[in-house]
Amino acid sequence: xxxxxxxxxxxxxxxxxxxxxxxxxxxxxxxxxxxxxxxxxxxxxxxxxxxxxxxxxxxxxxxxxxxxxxxxxxxxxxxxxxxxxxxxxxxxxxxxxxxxxxxxxxxxxxxxxxxxxxxxxxxxxxxxxxxxxxxxxxxxxxxxxxxxxxxxxxxxxxxxxxxxxxxxxxxxxxxxxxxxxxxxxxxxxxxxxxxxxxxxxxxxxxxxxxxxxxxxxxxxxxxxxxxxxxxxxxxxxxxxxxxxxxxxxxxxxxxxxxxxxxxxxxxxxxxx
Length: 272
Hints:
By secondary structure, this protein is mostly helical. It has helices at 2-31, 33-41, 49-72, 80-113, 117-145, 167-191, 197-205, 208-226, 229-258; strands at residues 149-152, 157-160. The protein has nine helices and two strands; from the N terminus they run αααααββαααα. Residues 16-60 form the DUF6533 domain. Pfam families: DUF6533 (PF20151).
């Protein structure tokens, strides 16, 4: 009986976590809508690739967050096969789209500001290794989770009874990629000519957004080890929403600085 109550509590938290993720991502979208219009859509650049990257990161993520909130709301009429499909959609899109959008934004940063080919080559090699490992682990994780996912008609929601044992390794690969980016940023900061040590500190300060993402990734790894399935899934949903928020702000900041759309320059990617 105690185990059932604990599971119900976890499911309730997961439902509210999905609501928090939904409110957070749409509230931030409203806050940054003016900046989005001026730096993304009204941008004189005729290259449509940055716009496509932004749509993938911001709007596609919002669509998935809405989908997650709908599935966990208790109002959806689903079945076991739809619950299994839901896990596939969430896991693979979270892995591939987060990694891909962040890679192209960071690639644009290094390509536009540094103009050093060896950094781009290192970034490309690291991303190739990351996306291969994380996608492979994500597929294995979801395939393993299929036997532990079931639709509960009484609660009208999908239930995950057990977390796959390989999930921490999959989340660890995401954490490893962000740590790799932090190390690359450190290397970039110390390799560039600086007049004083304060210049290096300023350069490292601009990478605070990536450090925050690393802390979020670390939280997901910890939850996959010590948390219940519902709690882990709820935290993953919130982290994905926050990841999209931060990356969208980085994207707008990069485009704004390049085309002088923001006016006064800030030292932080998060200052929009």
